[in-house]
Every structure is written in C-alpha cells, then in structure tokens.
Write a structure and sequence with these properties.
The structure holds two protein chains of two kinds. Chain A is built from 21 helices and twelve strands. By secondary structure, chain A is mostly helical. Classes of the chains: A mainly alpha, B mainly beta. Chains A and B meet through helix 1, helix 2, helix 3, helix 5 and helix 6 of A and strand 28, strand 29, strand 30, strand 34 and strand 35 of B.
C-alpha cells in the first residue's frame, strides 16, 4: 500500500515539474509560432530580383482584373469608359445583364452601379501607382544597402520605367476624373489631397521628363513590353495634347515622328491581331502584353476584362455579346462613292440617317471604309477566319442591335486562344494597345491643325488612310484570305474605298476631318470618350448622338436611350467613387473631393 | 428537465473532476463499499425476500427509470413507467433509489415486502454543473451559466449538437437545412466585426472552431453555457464570445455493463419550396415577358413562344444551326432533323409546358437515420463508457448527404491517490454534394439556380442529356439538377481524433493536482468537379477538377492545482493553473482542367488525364500558440455569501511582440437571500440567489502572422509577359498584406446582474440576467482608400461595440408536466469605428450590390439601401423626374426613390439604413406531459422583430437575367389603373427599380413548432428481456407562422471570410437563396439491458 502511494506521488510531482520547466514564461513558445506561413517578407525581396519583380508587377497592372468585380471596368482597353460612355458602342448583351454598365451608357454616373465599377477603375490605377512607387522605394533601398546588386544602366532603367508607369496610371486617373491625388514614392499619407486637373498634368509631365532622362532608347533586356525613352516621349506628347498645350505637343510629337522608332503597320489587320508575328510591330508604342496558356489556370493574363466582348451563343465563342458597335459608329464608316471620303465629312446632315442593319446584302453595292469590317462583326460578312457572322451570334438584337465587336477577337489560325478559363474561347493573347502610332500621328495632325499647318496635318491623316486602304477583310477561309487587297474579287459584301484627302480648305474643315479620322481609325479602342472630352465637344456630341445628328438618333434605334440623362458640363469628369471620397476623409473633410456637379 | 449529476450514496464514483472537489468523500465511499461488500458476504445466508413498491416524485406522480439497488451490491432494477419496481433482496438489507434530477433516497428493508418511496427533486441551486476546469454547485456560481436541456435537444435530428442550442436564453443559432451545414452560434449578441464564435470546451479541451459535426450529440451528457465574463474569464483569451462547456463523460453506474441502444429513422422534406410561389407554367411566364417588352416599347421576342398574341409552347426551344433547314415566321426552327443531334455541338432541346424545377431538385422524402449504442459500467476503481454512432442524413435536395460514424471511449482508473484516464473520440464524416452555406452570389448553388430557370426550359434535351436555356431570352443559368448531379461525387471527408488523457493526484487532503493533454487532430480531404455546360446560354466549355487535403493539429496541455479549505463557516476553493496551446494547419490543393474522361475513376490530377498545362498546385498553412496562467479563488460564507475572483494571463503568438501578454481579471458576488432570516420559510421565495459579476475577456481571433507586412505574387495578378512571348510570364511581386507590429488584445468588459429564484416551494424556477458587454480595442481591418494600393489593410485595435440585453427562463418541472419559457433580447450597437469614419460598408455583395453597412450608433450589419416612396404614378411626376434627372429611370410605374440628402438626385449618397437583421426577442416554450405509459413533449421557437433582406427579389420580382418570377407578379404589378400595386410596373427597360432599397426588406419574425414528440414506455411484459424500452414518434418543424414571403425565414449565416477572418456577422439576414429547413417525421426507440 505504501509503495503504491509513493509512486503516484513521484509521478505527479514529476509531471508538474516538467510542465513548469517547459512553459515557465517561455516566450519562444509564442515567438516561434508568430511567423507568417508561405509569404515573403520585405527582406527577401531587397535585392535585384526583388526590384525587377516589383517592376514586373507594376507593368501587370496595365490590365488588372484580380479582385475586382469581373474586372471589366478595369480592363486595359477602357471599353466601358472610352467606348460605351461615348458614341462608339452600346453596353450590349441584354437589358438585365451587367446593369452597372448600362448606368454608364445612359450617362447616369452617379447611380449605384456606375459608382461601384468606377471604383474598380480607381482601384486599378492606384494599384498601378502603388506598385510603381513600391518599385522606386525598393530600388532606393537596394541601391543604398547593396549597391553591387544593380548596375548603373539597370538602376536608371528601372527608375525610368517605374516613373513612366506611375505617369501612365496617373494619366489614366487624370483623364477619367480630372482632379485626383498624385502619389509619389515618398508619400506616406495614403489620404493625400487631390490636385486640380491642370496640376495633375504638370505632375505627370514632370514624371515623364524624369523618365525620359533615365530611360534607354531601346527596351531594357530587349523585352518589348518595356517602356523606352521614346515611349515616354510619345506619352509626353499625348499628355500635352490632353492638357491643351498644342504648341508643346507639336514639338514633342514632331520629334517622335522624325526620330523615333515608330511606323504604321503595313496593313490594318496587323494592328489588332492574335498572330504573334504582327504583334509588337513598329506601330506599338505601349501595349498590354497579354499571354495565354502561360501556366495560369484561370486565363487571368489573357484579357480577362475583355472576355464578355465576344459574339454570343450561336457563335464559335459562345458568350457574351457585350460591347456592341453602335449604329452611329457603323454609319461613320460609310464612304462617299465619288470622293472616297467619309460621309460624315461630305454629307454632314444625312450621314447618320440609316437605321437599318448593315448586313452583307445591304452593303453589297455600298461604298464603305474597309475599317468597318475590322472593327465590327455584321451578318453575312466573314468574321476574321471564324465564318460568316449571323444573327444567332447576337444575344438580343432588339435590345442592342445586330453588330459584334471584332478588334479584340483573335484569328482562329493565330493560336492566340486560351485553353483555360471559364470559357476559353473568350480569352486570348491579343495585345491591347494603350497607345499606338496611328493615334500619335492623328494627334500630331491635330496639333498641326491648331498651329495652322494644314498641309502637314493632311499628310499625316492621309498616311493613316493610305494604310487603311491596303487590306480588307477577306473570305477568311484560310489564313491567307483573312486579309486581302480591298479590291479583291472574293469580296462580295461591300465596295471598299478609302481615298486620301486632297485638300483641307480651312482650319475648321481640317479639324473635322482629323476628328472623323480618329473616330474611324480608333473606333472601339477606348479612346473616343476621352477625345470628345479633350476637344470640349462631349456634351454636344453625346446629346446629339442620343437625340439626333446627321439625320438619325440613337434614341429612335435603342429604346433604352429614352431614359438616358442629358449630358452636361459635369460629365466632363467622371464622379469620384463615393467609397474613395469617404475613405479619404480626415477631420470630417474629404481630401479627395467629389467633382463639381456630382 | 435539467441535466444534473447523478449522485447515489454508495456510488459517488469519482468523475473526472469530482475527486478533486471532494477527495475525502471518494475515499470514504470506496472504503464504505468495500466494507459493505464484506458485510454482506458475511451475511450470505440472510433471508431473501421479494420487495415491490412504487416510486413517486414530490408531486405524487410516478417516476420511471429510477435505479433501485440493493445497497452495497451490484443488484439493481429500474422502475417502470408507472413507477413500480420489484426486486429480490435480503430482508435486513437496504435499498437505494437514484434518478437524475432527484435527491437520492435510501430505505432500510427491515423485512418489508412493500416499500413505496417519494423522492425529492434537486433544487436548481443544488445542481452540480461542470463549468471552468471544475464542477460547481449552482449555489456557488456567481456568473451567468445556463444549462442546456439535453433531453429537449435530443428531440431534434441534426448532425451537430449546436443546431439544438437556440432554446437556451442568451443564445442564437442559425443553420441552413443542408445536412452538413455549419451552425453559427452567438452568445449575447455580437462583440466583434469578425469571428464571434464562442469557445467550445469539450471534455476540458478548448476548441475554437464552430464546426463540430464530428461530435456525436448522443454522447453528450451536459452542456453549460458560460455567458458572462465573470463565468467565462477563466478561459481569458478566447472567452470574449462566451464559452460552451460540453461534457461527454457518459459513464456507467457501478455494476455489470449496461447497454443502451437507440435508433431513430425518419423522412425529411423542405419546409417550403419555390414552386409554392413561382410560376410553374410556361405560357403564364410568357405573359410576364410579353408585358415587360410591351411596356418598354420593345418588340416582344418570338423565338420561343412564336406569335405574341397567340403564344404556343415550342416543339423545340433550341436547335443548333445545322439541325434544321428553315425557320417559321417567328424565327423558330422548322423541319428539325433530330438525327443531326450530336453532343455537345449540335444540341436540340424540346420545349416544356412547365418544368417544376423545385420538385426536380428537392423531391423531398429524404431519409435520415441515427443509431447509437452505448456500453457503460464501473467497478470499484474504474468507470468506463464506450459508444458507437452511425448517422446518415440525406439532404432534401438530390445527390446531397451527410454521414458520420463515430466511436468514443471514456475511461477512468483510480489507484490510491492517483486517478488517470482518457476521453477519446474517433469520427469519420463524409458529406456529398458540397452544398454548404452560400457565399456572396445567390446563383452559386442549386437553390439560387432554381429561381433562375424558366418553366419552358426542359430538364433534358431530346437525347436525355441535361438541357438548359441556350436560346436567347432564356436566361444565363445552369440546370440546377445537372448542377447537383455533376457534383454527386464531390465528397468531403473529415476524419477526427479528439479527446484528452489526464492524470490527477491527491497530494494532500486539501490539495489536488491535475494534468491533462488534449488533442484535436483533423484530416480533411475534398474534391470537386466542375462540368462543361454546352447547353447554357453562357456555356462553360472546359471542365475542371480540384482536390485538397488539409491537416490540423491542435494540442492543449493544462495543469491545475486545486486547494479546498474549510475554516468554520468559511469555505475557500483555490485554483491555479497553466495552459499551453499550439495549433498548426496545412492545406494542399491541386486542380487541372479539360479532363478527357469525366467518370469519377478518371478524376485524378495526372498529366495524361487532362490538360497538363492547366495543372495547378498550391499549399498554405498557419500556426499559432497561446500560453496562459490562471487562478481562481472562491469563497463561501455559510452558503449565504459567495465571492469569486479570477485572473488569467495569456500570451498569444498572433499579437505584436510588445503586446503579446494580456491580463483578464473578473470577479463575481453572490448573495443567497433566501438564507437570510427575513426570507426564512417564505412561501413565495423558497430559494433565491442574487448574482453580480464583472470581468474582462479577450479576443485574438485574427489570422496568424499579421504583425508584419507580407509580400507575394500570383500568376494571374503580378506575373507578366514583359517579353511579349504570348505564352510565358515573368515573376512579379507585390505587397499583399500590411502588417501591424502593435497588434494587441481586443478586450470585452462585461457586467452581469442576475437572480436565480425558486418560487412556491420550487414549483417555479426563475432565472433572470441583465448584462452589458463593451468591446474595446476591437480588432479589425478598416478599409483604406485605394490610393494605399490593393494590399490588405492592416488589422488594428480600433473600434468599440456594445451589447446590452437580458435573458430569462421560467420553468416548472413536475412529475406529470413540465414547462419552460425562455427568452432573450440583445441590442447590439457599434460605438466607434476608427475615430475617422462613422461607417463602413460591408464588402460582401449580391451581384455587384452592397446590402449591409456598419455604422456608429447602429447594430452590426444593418441593411443599406434607398428609401422608397411608392411608384411614379403620373406622367407629370415622370416628366419632373426626367427633367431633373432625379433617378436613372423615370417612367410611370417605376419605384420612386427618396432623395435623402436633398441634392435633387438619387445617388449612392442617398442610401441609408433600412433594416436591422437582429431580432428584438427570441424565445422558446418547451412543454412536456406524461400520462400512464405515454408522454408528449414539444418545443415552439420564435424570433421577433428581425428584418430580412430578400435579395432574391432581384430575380423573382425584377427578373434580372430573365429568371423565373413570382406567380402573382403580373396580376399585382403596377398598371395605370392599379397604382397601389405590390410590384412595380414590369418593364424591360427599367433596370433602376431593382436598386437595393427598403422594397427588399421584410419583417422576418416567425414562430415555428420546432419539434413534437409522443413517446410510449413499453411495459416490461411486452419486452421481458429489455429493462426499459421507449418508442416514440416525432415531428420537427411541423409548422411555421410568418409574414415573410420568401422561402424560409430561418436563414443561415453566410459563409464569408474577409482578410481579417470570418465576417459572417456583417452579413446576417440577407436571403440569397438558402437551403430551407426540413420538416422531418421520424420514429425512434431507446432501450437498455
């Protein structure tokens, strides 16, 4: 009995002693488990690879849909803001699908839906700014702490690229909202106050000048996606145009044209394409480098934000029928048979009178600009090499018309299609142009017009028109026949014609001609809205688009426009997302103030 | 009935803690037993006589199931339903009578052949309950501790015991009708923006995970809920949301093994179906479409129903281009050649006169079975209980079920001053169909998808493959039956080993030491298949398969020392302890797309089976630890004054290095007024205890590792094809989470005032508590403006929340009938958010819309939206609206929104709080009545004053995505002659009236007959070999009284996580198409031998 009691006593004592010694105020028990799992800390990235990786991520935000509601509103192409908000395109699909974009289309930008997707765009651009700034900060740290990591050329190049990217993202914010905060790498207060629009442009130009000074003339590491000194210069000209500094822009853009590496692609079909051999040609100034089948299993890098913008169920793509060209846009492609010039210019009172569908039968003997059939899918006309477009490709024609978008769509033979994703046919590696040389040339033409040098302006416009006349959509029964000469006998659905201007009789005429050319050349590319705004004709153009211009009105074609709001001065800036106004509040005052009128 | 501990005279078998509590009693008892055995052995020749009698309760009613034992022997019988017993015993022996809830009785036989006994009930305050690290008499408890009525809870069929807890005052429980769904339990409101799960302590092992489906409810002997800080703060760090103490120690009385077997089987159907109130006829639906287009001045689509004035159900809703040659005048395919059908590219789908999608997916009559066997017994130096369970519940939806097998062994050995043993459970769970609680989108699951299908869409195409609305105008959704069918092999397995091993040592007469190592080991596997959907309008063209494995290891080592001392009228109980806890978790998942064969045997992640380019693998994990020291001192003066003081000090690995340690003090005072002279022999108040408690508890339930900033990258987020290759990407990195090295404990300060009253000589028991809980340094991650980048905001200790409320229970327990009314009220209020903002909008959305807001002065998760003011009823109103661009759609019949800020426009700035998901009051009434061999019992539950945001109206009222709609939509929608309509004008162009507004909010109050059971105790003459057999029939959710027009007012919490943890409490009461509760009829039997 005694033995039996002694043993447990020993056992118990031992137990408690053991417990006491193991856990007696051992902080290591806590600190050991404090380390986060499966993540990197700042120290691991403080080297050349870390800096380069941060810079890659800064580029990636050019088209960035991760974590946003589908990402359409943050797509690189700006299709929601640049096209649907303008006279280029309808939201598309059917009445009930993605009504937030319908708010945009009906100029009801204060509506809850629009407010939500405006915030997606805001998040995308400021994530870009944030990534660029993170790169700059890490670069400074690495250069200071381990100078041997990066050579001088890379140091300068990385800094230049990051500054350029920051300028790009801030420019996106600037042209959307006007008055926005400008965040630099040394800013620690994330609730930095907005600047006035003009001051934002000044800041952007400051960054671009700094970038020009740092950047090499050819892409670092030979990687075509990177910004060069010429990219930054071209961009500077663009920002000067937006800021209304035509004289400055003229100088900058002339230099880029005269000495830069850029040129037009030989034919228009090589601009928006899935064929790798045409991508990143001389025309590309800045493009989102899409990639498909790159090991990413959802297709996030393959133009995820464009994936609704394909013909619908009867088509080889299956879904979803968004971003449909407007009848107004289609009418813009009609050419005066005699002069070969757009009827927008030759017949300003009747050019937009046609309400009917431009199917192949209707246009068989009409004279049209070949760019119509690179821009829009329409019934009976080959759709690149996917066969003839037909009405089963359209989701709800009674709602949003009979046309499909085309520029973002890859050629079947190009191999650009993704094999992954929700619907893999709607994801591809077609690069999205953020800035291309034709855009720059037409901006130069604009600057020339404003400077009174009309001949130079006409020459630039004619360069663009001449290239447009090289190839048209062919039968597309083989790779070779996707694009054929515009007079090719296999073309039965239209008479294509695009003639050069022979004279710009006045500055006003020249201005109209250049603007008409931009509308046609850059249609559906997300530029139109910003051009209208830049030209100061947003209200008149969009109200006329809805209520009547050139003999036709969209209101009579699409019933939903009957509920469109009138476009007013306030529409020159999108409203700042309400969430961002609220979250910028300090001491009861929002640092990012709402734009006037919203 | 209240669960009390069975204390018989000779069988004060040391339970896990009782030996610490009453060491001498144990030893004495053992000694006495030995003595008695010897005594009787010596009297082996004593005369044996047959004794019969009846055992009645205090009220004179018969007591069934009373253990009648010959004192000092293992011979025993049970009383039958009429309270009668017969036993053969020595004429000079003694009999003991024991029954849970009754004070033990003892009778000397003294040669009598008839002994009738009247037993006295244990009064509420004399009950012994297991609370924190110990057992306590109610009379010694100064905090708010509620006991679950285990018997009443057992009347419900469910995988998780938690589903049965909402009849406890102060507790709310929500769960969906899906068999494996997680129950969300909240004690006394909500104290934090994220993760408000209480701490579960199961057999002494803390578990901070609300998923306890692995625990067999039949193993549970007691559940105590520690509601206030003074009761809970001994669990300090993790107790801020209350503690639920569960004991499974079902052990036998001394004697040979007693076997108890119980079985229940039944059939379940959904309480309500969408077919009750959606359109089930194709042509009726067309009238809605026609009206919508006509009102919008749009051409009415003809591709399905043909001539709008003479619509017909089409022969084919869809035929691929190459399967027909011509179309009729309305664009419908003619001359369809069915031989040209080929899957998947040339599909042909017939038309349906009316598919009842609900019945297709929820056919009802889902079987459920629950089988338990328990073997328990004890000897002089050991007790044991072994149980097995098999539970199989089919979902009321097809291809959906949950099964569990579990095995438990609880044993304890005593050797002299040493006690040791273990409680261990092994459980294997398997759930099929993967239909948990919904996340953000209503369309995610079969319930939501059900609304989305039009009646004209057939279930199958002409070849027997699943059909869907491929043709224009038929919506964009997937066939819900296919959705369920294709997920029939989506199996989630959870294997669990849970329990503890313990050893106790009675070092001195007054000092008991104890050490326990608890373990919670989980291995989970899951797999999921995502089919192609070529038949859809928005087809999915690649299939995909994913699988995952995860493992949790959680151990807790607890050491306590307990010292009891009585000095005259003063009793002291001291407890000191130390605890260490470590949790590790690891998850591995892989996926691949484009499987060549899709039968379950081919679904493995191997290159050859699918497209290896889509193969994706990743793993992640977490770890955390806690180290704690705690002490408790209880003082009792003459059972009249009770005081208790608790201090706990906790260190957490999740918090900043300088703030890891937190100290959580609490105290409680009790005054047993009934012991005072002035209440002596009071007729009304026979026993009364007043309690006051105050304490601080903590919370650190945030993800691990958030004290430092984290970086990462993802192929689809930061990687980029900088070289323009079109098919390869270079690595990129970004900041993913912002850290905060200053993270410290969230604190909850709670005050409780309560009373336990026994009235009219114990006829009524009343328990009443009022409380206030204030949360300070609330841990959460307030949103930063997007200029901060997309990295997760840092978690900070900002914010305050307050809950005030009361809960009560009024009960009567008699021999024949018993009744308990319980009620709870809490009022939650956000007191401050971060000092800058006074609100933030929950980042959870239905489609792209926000429905909830957290605003200072209002409860968490209040509904957000516009206020409405009827409809635009006149052209003049419409014109004025249009002229001022007041709102997005200004035509007659549209909903008119209120311009709250008066700026002339309806914008997001006009959104306001339009509803409160929290009930004003929840209550239940539990009733039981016994007559002869029969007994009837039932529970009615009610929730009052809570609002429901019926987000499904987006679909069944506003027809977003051409979904099905309510059957009365056309009849009751706005027309120029019916301006006081229930629904706005049906108008295809009106995509504005569906903005989230108070139009979506309804009163969610309901009363539900939770369960009703009729039992029959089978007389022994019918089943002679069985000791006590009871059979019963029961019904659950028999009826519901509610004004809520949606499917089921009893909504589960959304399964939603934010960057800083579980945020389901920010999103309560939003109906996104949830799996409805089941109406279940079952029969059961319980028998023992």
């Amino acid at each position: 009995m005694k033995k039996a009691t002694r043993q447990p006593m020993l056992l118990g004592t031992a137990l408690f002693l053991a417990a006491g010694s193991l856990f007696g105020c051992k902080d290591s028990f806590l600190t050991d488990a404090a380390t986060p799992q499966g993540v990197l800390d700042a120290g691991v990235l403080a080297n050349a690879a870390g800096v380069e990786g941060n810079l890659i991520a800064a580029y990636r935000a050019l088209d960035w849909t991760t974590g946003l509601n589908g990402g359409q509103a943050a797509a690189a192409s700006n299709w929601v803001w640049g096209s649907v908000a303008s006279d280029d395109a309808y939201k598309g699909s059917d009445a009930t699908d993605f009504t937030a974009i319908m708010d945009v289309e009906r100029y009801d930008w204060g509506a809850p839906g629009a407010d939500g997707i405006l915030d997606d765009k805001w998040k995308q651009v400021f994530e870009g700014v944030s990534r660029a700034n993170a790169t700059l900060n890490l670069l400074k740290q690495v250069v200071k702490d381990s100078p041997a990591q990066l050579g001088a050329a890379d140091q300068a190049g990385i800094e230049g690229e990051a500054l350029f990217l920051r300028a790009h993202y801030e420019f996106e914010a600037y042209r959307m909202w006007g008055n926005v905060p400008y965040l630099r790498e040394d800013d620690t207060d994330v609730r930095k106050a907005s600047l006035q629009k003009a001051a934002v442009a000044t800041e952007i130009l400051k960054d671009l000048d700094a970038a020009i000074a740092k950047l090499p003339t050819t892409p670092r590491k030979g990687q075509v996606g990177r910004a060069t000194q010429w990219t930054a210069k071209a961009y500077k000209g663009r920002v000067q145009m937006y800021a209304g500094n035509y004289a400055g822009a003229l100088t900058t853009l002339r230099e880029v044209v005269a000495s830069g590496p850029y040129a037009l692609q030989p034919s228009y079909d090589q601009v928006w394409t899935g064929f790798k051999q045409y991508e990143n040609g001389k025309e590309t100034i800045l493009a989102y480098q899409a990639s498909a089948n790159d090991g990413e299993s959802s297709g996030n890098n393959a133009n995820y934000g464009e994936r609704l913008n394909f013909p619908h169920s009867g088509s080889p793509f299956g879904c979803c029928g968004f971003h449909q060209p407007s009848q107004n846009l289609m009418n813009s492609f009609v050419v005066d048979p005699a002069t070969g010039l757009p009827t927008m210019i030759t017949n300003p009172t009747t050019w937009n009178a046609e309400n009917g569908e431009y199917d192949a039968a209707k246009t068989a003997s009409m004279t049209i600009d070949p760019r119509m059939d690179w821009t829009a899918g329409r019934d009976g006309v080959p759709y690149k090499d996917w066969g003839a477009h037909n009405n089963t490709w359209i989701r709800d024609a009674s709602y949003s018309g009979p046309y499909s978008p085309k520029k973002n769509v890859h050629e079947q033979a190009s191999g650009a299609q993704s094999s992954v994703g929700w619907v893999n046919t709607q994801l591809n590696s077609v690069n999205i142009h953020l800035f291309r040389y034709a855009d720059l040339l037409l901006m130069l033409a604009e600057a020339e017009v404003e400077a009174g040098s009309l001949a130079s302006a006409m020459a630039d416009v004619n360069l663009v028109r001449a290239r447009a006349g090289v190839k048209a959509q062919g039968p597309g029964t083989s790779t070779a026949t996707i694009a054929v000469p515009i007079t090719d006998p296999s073309i039965t659905w239209a008479k294509y014609k695009v003639s050069p201007y022979t004279s710009f009789p006045s500055q006003a005429y020249a201005r109209d001609a250049v603007r008409a050319e931009r509308k046609i050349e850059l249609a559906m590319e997300g530029q139109r809205f910003f051009d209208l705004k830049r030209w100061g004709i947003l209200e008149t153009t969009l109200n006329a688009y809805v209520n009547g211009v050139g003999g036709g009105s969209e209101k009579s074609r699409r019933t939903f426009f009957n509920n469109a709001q009138a476009v007013q001065a306030k529409h020159n800036n999108f409203p700042i997302p309400s969430r961002e106004v609220l979250l910028s509040t300090v001491d009861g005052q929002p640092r990012v103030a709402q734009n006037t009128g919203w | 009935m209240r669960e009390t501990r069975e204390i018989a005279m000779e069988e004060t078998v040391p339970r896990r803690q009782s030996f610490i509590n009453t060491p001498m009693r144990v030893l004495r008892a053992i000694g006495t037993s030995v003595l008695l055995v010897m005594l009787f052995a010596g009297n082996a020749l004593a005369q044996q006589i047959a004794v019969t009698g009846t055992v009645t309760g205090a009220g004179g009613g018969p007591l069934a199931g009373v253990t009648v034992r010959i004192s000092g022997t293992e011979t025993r019988v049970l009383t039958n339903a009429t309270g009668r017993y017969t036993i053969t015993a020595p004429a000079n022996g003694a009999l003991t009578y024991t029954l849970i809830g009754q004070k033990p009785a003892r009778e000397e036989i003294g040669g009598r052949t008839r002994i009738d006994v009247r037993m006295e009930g244990v009064t509420y305050l004399e009950e012994v309950v297991v609370t924190a690290y110990t057992e306590q008499r109610r009379a010694d408890i100064t905090g708010a501790v509620a006991s679950i009525n285990v018997e009443s809870a057992a009347r419900q069929t469910g995988a998780s015991v938690l589903q049965k807890l909402d009849a406890v005052p102060g507790i709310t429980v929500v769960a969906s009708g899906s068999p494996a769904s997680r129950s969300t339990v909240r004690i006394r409101g909500i104290s934090s923006f994220q993760n408000n799960d209480p701490l579960y302590v199961i057999d002494g092992v803390p578990v901070q995970d609300s998923y306890i489906n692995w625990l067999n409810p039949a193993d549970i002997t007691s559940i105590q809920v520690l509601k206030d800080a003074s009761a809970a703060s001994i669990y300090g760090s993790r107790a801020s949301n209350g503690v639920i103490v569960i004991e499974t120690t079902k052990r036998g009385a001394s004697g040979p093994p007693r076997v108890t077997f119980s079985a229940r089987t039944g059939l379940a159907s959904p309480t309500r179906g969408y077919d009750d109130f959606l359109i089930n006829n194709a042509l009726d639906y067309f009238q809605v479409v026609k009206t919508s287009f006509t009102n919008a001045k749009l051409p009415v689509p003809t591709n399905i129903f043909g001539d709008p004035n003479n619509p017909t159900v089409p022969t084919y809703t869809y035929a691929a281009d190459n399967t027909y040659t011509t179309k009729d005048a309305f664009g419908r395919p003619l001359n369809v050649d069915v031989n040209k059908y080929s899957y998947p590219n040339s599909l042909i789908m017939p038309g349906s006169t009316g598919t009842n999608w609900w019945k297709a997916v929820f056919p009802g009559q889902a079987p459920v079975g629950d089988y338990n066997i328990n073997v328990a017994g004890s000897g002089e130096d050991h007790t044991y209980g072994v149980s097995g369970n098999y539970f199989d519940q089919r979902g009321t939806a097809v291809y959906n079920d949950f099964r569990r097998g579990s095995l438990r062994a609880n044993t304890q050995f005593t050797r002299s001053k040493l006690t040791f043993g273990e409680n261990a459970a092994i459980a294997a769970e398997r759930s099929v169909g993967g239909m948990g609680d919904p996340t953000g989108y209503a369309e995610d699951g079969i319930v939501g998808k059900n609304i989305l299908m039009q009646p004209v869409v057939p279930i199958y195409d002409i070849n027997g493959n699943f059909a869907s609305g491929k043709a224009g105008g038929l919506g964009n959704q997937s066939n819900p039956l296919k959705f369920a069918y294709e997920r029939r092999n989506n199996i989630n397995n959870n294997n669990r080993i849970f329990g503890n091993g313990f050893a106790g040592f009675q070092a001195l007469q007054a000092l008991a030491l104890r050490s326990s190592i608890g373990f919670n080991i989980r291995q989970g596997t899951g797999k999921g298949f995502n089919p192609t959907t070529f038949e859809n309008s928005e087809p999915g063209t690649t299939n995909g398969f994913n699988e995952n494995q995860e493992a949790n290891l959680d151990w807790t080592w607890t050491n306590t020392a307990r010292y009891n001392k009585q000095l005259g009228s003063h009793t002291f109980n001291l407890l000191a302890g130390q605890e260490a806890n470590k949790s590790t978790f690891r998850h591995l998942e892989a996926s691949m797309n484009s499987f060549k064969a899709t039968d379950p045997n081919s679904l493995y992640i191997q290159a050859a089976l699918g497209d290896p380019g889509t193969r994706n693998t990743q793993s992640y994990g977490s770890q955390s630890s806690l180290l704690s020291y705690f002490g408790k001192a209880d003082y009792n003066f003459q059972d009249k004054y009770v005081a208790s003081v608790t201090v706990r000090r906790d260190g957490s690995s999740r918090l900043g290095p300088d703030h890891r340690w937190g100290t959580f003090p609490a105290f409680g005072l009790g005054w047993r007024v009934s012991k005072e002279k002035f209440l002596e022999n009071n007729k009304i108040l026979s026993d009364a205890m007043l309690r006051f408690g105050y304490g601080v508890t903590g919370n650190q339930q945030i993800p691990s590792g958030r004290i430092i900033s984290q970086y990462g990258g993802d192929l689809g987020d930061t990687y980029y094809d900088i070289a323009g290759t079109n098919s390869s990407i270079q690595p990129g990195f970004r900041q993913t989470k912002l850290g905060n090295a200053d993270l410290k404990w969230e604190e909850n300060r709670a005050t409780n005032i309560g009373a336990d009253l026994a009235m009219f000589n114990g006829y009524l028991n009343v328990i009443f508590d009022v409380y206030q809980r204030n949360t300070n340094n609330l841990l959460f991650d307030p949103a930063l403006p997007a200029t901060a980048g997309f990295a997760n905001s840092p978690i900070v200790n900002i914010g305050k929340m307050r809950n005030k409320g009361f809960d009560f229970s009024v009960g009567h327990t008699g021999d024949r009938w018993n009744a308990t009314l319980q009620g709870s009220h809490y009022k939650n209020e956000i007191v401050s958010i971060d000092g800058v903002q006074n609100f933030f909008i929950t980042n959870v959305k239905v489609r792209d819309r926000e429905a909830a807001i957290n605003q200072v002065g209002y409860p968490i998760g209040s509904f957000l939206g516009f206020k409405t003011n009827g409809y635009i009823n006149t052209q003049a109103e419409a014109d004025a609206c249009k002229a001022g661009s007041v709102q997005g759609f200004c035509e007659m019949g549209a909903i008119k929104f209120v311009d709250i800020n008066g700026d002339g426009k309806v914008t997001n700035a006009d959104r306001t709080i339009i509803g409160n998901p929290h009930p004003d009051f929840t209550g239940s009434l539990d009733l039981g009545y016994r007559f002869g061999n029969f007994d009837v019992s039932g529970t009615v539950f009610g929730s009052f004053g809570n609002d429901i945001f019926d987000a499904q109206k987006l679909f069944y009222v506003f027809r977003m995505f051409q979904t099905n709609v309510k059957a009365d939509l056309l009849e009751n929608s706005w027309t120029p002659t019916n301006t006081n309509a229930k629904y706005p004008r049906i108008n295809e162009n009106d995509q504005n009236s569906n903005a989230f507004s108070d139009y979506f909010v309804e009163d969610g109050s309901y009363v539900r007959m939770r369960n009703l059971q009729v039992g029959y105790n089978v007389p022994q003459r019918f089943a002679r070999w069985l000791n006590a057999t009871r059979v019963y029939v029961q019904a659950e959710n028999l009826f519901t009284i509610t004004g809520y027009e949606g499917l089921d007012p009893s909504l589960p919490a959304a399964d939603i996580n934010g960057a800083a943890g579980d945020i389901r409490d920010q999103y309560r009461g939003v109906d996104r198409g949830t799996y409805p509760s089941s109406k279940t009829f079952s029969i059961g039997i319980t028998t023992s031998f």
